[in-house]
Write a structure and sequence with these properties.
alpha+beta; ATP binding; about 140 residues; 4 helices; Transferase(Phosphotransferase), domain 1
Amino acid sequence: MVVSDYSNYDDREEWLDPDIVLRISEQLVDAVTFLHEAGYAHGDISSRNIVFTCNHLSQASKEDLFNILGPPESENLTRLDGEPSGDSLPKQLVKTVGWDNWTEEDEEDLRIIDFGEAFLQGGRAEKACPAWHFAKAGNNL
């Protein structure tokens, strides 16, 4: 399910190379095994909670970073009613960037983030796993 989130199944040219799928899968299995051996269950493994280290980008200059990802796009935050937003909100929103060639970074490692649904093994998860997790995996509900 997680690896399939990174592929566009409607366009074969957008499919990830098998070696990339294998690398992601192996690292994900290793990460989940590490969590389980430590006595924890994540509770929400999905592509939204998996990131990559981006070692290449972490060493890039600002100019190189903008050449790779493009300049940041932002817009001012305004309230619908026109009132001032106050000091508790940001003045601008910055759009998330896309990185189309991330799969070409052979040395990048997977990291699992967002442990908000994690629980101790033998304990109970606070919430049940949503049905769409199972439906997306191909099971009939």
